[in-house]
Amino acid sequence: MTLTPPPLKDDCFALPAGTQWTAVDDALTSLSDRLHPVTGIEVLPLEAALNRVLAEDIIAQRSNPPLPNSAVDGYGMRHVDIIDGPQAMPLVAGRSAAGQPFEGALPPGHAIRILTGATLPKKVDTVILQEDITTDGQQIAFHGPLKKGANARNAGEDVAAGAQILPSGRILTPADLALLAATGVAQVPVRKLLRVAIVSTGDELAEPGDPARPDQIYDANRPMLRAMCQRFGFHPVDLGRAPDDREALRGFLDAAAEQSDVILTSGGASAGDEDHLAALMNETGAMFLWRMAIKPGRPLALGLWHGTPIFGLPGNPVAAMVCTLIFARPAMGLLAGQNWHDPQRLSVPAAFAKSKKPGRREYLRARLRNGKAEVFSSEGSGRISGLSWAEGLVELPDGALEISEGTLVTFIPYSAFGL
Ligand SMILES: Nc1nc2c(c(=O)[nH]1)N[C@H]1C(S)=C(S)[C@@H](COP(=O)(O)OP(=O)(O)OC[C@H]3O[C@@H](n4cnc5c(N)ncnc54)[C@H](O)[C@@H]3O)O[C@H]1N2
Ligand code: MOO
User: Fold this and answer.
1) Ligand 1 atom at minimal distance to the Cα of residue 200
2) Which Pfam families match (predicted)?
């Protein structure tokens, strides 16, 4: 009897029959619906608040500017005194400088020396640039007309006291710190850092720097995930490598649940003999999403371990990174008190050709050169060099797509994910 080979695996053309595949958008909707902040609140001074997540809406304590002031170095006057054509105006004694205001009111028909940022003296509503006048020290000569309010800034024209300046959930930027300072807010309620436990699984893994057996590989996922968490503004808790042993892994997960708000594991997420993570998580009965219609990264085990959410990332480093960026990053953002994070996408012409099959969303390692998206030469999920070569991802939609050079595709720079 001759053995017949198994029927052609249509893995590359269609999705395996009888398997429930979860679309990326459905998974994201489910995550954004179910997750909420889990971190406490602390009050920090501005110097410690960069990259932290606001825990409340912030209200301006003071207007910016607090009083009307001059936008230029020049001369202040009353607009009603200005006529059309050439004219001269006597100067009053004194001046108004930033931090040294002129205390009196400007008499009718006069002008006053005023410097940038100086409070406008009473009755002054218009300022002429010093380049536009001549003076002998006693009076100034210039041409009218001038626009009422020229070179003057109104009180509160930037921000009015009492206005909401920043929303809860916002990640504070350097510019936000300037806004807070200017409006009289010196300390802010922020979320405590989200503690993210990181565990790699697999007997094949060795620690970078240690000697490795020929059959071992160095653990690449942990340094990557640690660094990604740092860039996202979370606090990584590195728990090391768990062996392929169910009880040992259980111990790692128990420790992780103790010490963290969320657990990121990599490896062991699919259904092989040594994929203990999936088996353990199934045991808890709290696993709620499973096979994703995404490439790379099909096996993604999501669940709760003693109430602490686990993202069981696939072991292949490319899949681990893509799943972190697409699923874990926005989900962890919600846990950390951030607003839902949807990265900014660019529409750019492709510098490549590809025939994409329907059924799952694909992410390709990509970078922009000369305004076009180039993709890495291989789609292999273990090709770490491509992750490092890339500067972002090309996102291809769930359906089929014929791409030729010049077809518009979606590019998401790593920076848009917060990397
Ligand atoms: N019969 C099937 N086999 C596989 C399927 C499948 O659907 N049917 N899916 C493949 C896909 S896709 C992926 S991704 C992997 C995911 O498997 P696991 O999450 O269980 O991960 P492992 O098997 O433990 O590892 C996969 C791969 O990645 C390497 N790895 C793991 N951890 C690290 C690390 N920290 N640093 C560097 N490299 C790591 C590991 O050695 C393996 O080569 O399953 C496929 N198989
Ligand atoms: O998730 Mo796997 O890495 O798609 O190849």
Assistant:
1) 35
2) MoCF_biosynth, MoeA_C, MoeA_N
